User: What shape does this take?
Amino acid sequence: MSRAYEIRVSESVVRTVHVDDGVQAPVEMLPVLPPDRMGDLLGAELEQRGFHRDGTTATRTEPDGTVITVDLKNATISVRLGATSEVSESVDLKARVNNPTAGEANLRDEAIRQLDDRIADRTEALRRDVTARLEKKLADIKRELDAAVGKATVAALTERANQLGNIQDIHEDEAGNVTIRVKL
Assistant: This one.
């Protein structure tokens, strides 16, 4: 006759979880001047918009932790956002077993598996939150970068027009169209 034993296992875990998400894309600029000069003009415009320039990169960290890096030499932009969270989970399991030693080992393994699954679920939820926040931010960043590229392009066109002759008139309308009259 075998006896049934009731076994109870309690496990808990506390982990610091860090998730990071980002995107990289090309910066599309008209090749009005040589690439190095176009990068310099874009870098100057980005500095006016709060970016810190270090050689061929311009970087700005937003208050929410978003890091925007523009590689002026290779004409690319990288946007990264990360988050760190302390995740705490616990599980209590009990079972009736005939062999208390093997039963406890199996129950402990099940508790650890459940904890790992819960931590993975919480990590995935944090990752989805970071991704959603990054996606919302990208539209604003794109709009700002497009404006900076537009200003840099106007500066490049003005510089190129100066190389061709004497600039007579520069006119910019509300739509952002620029007309440069040059006397050759």
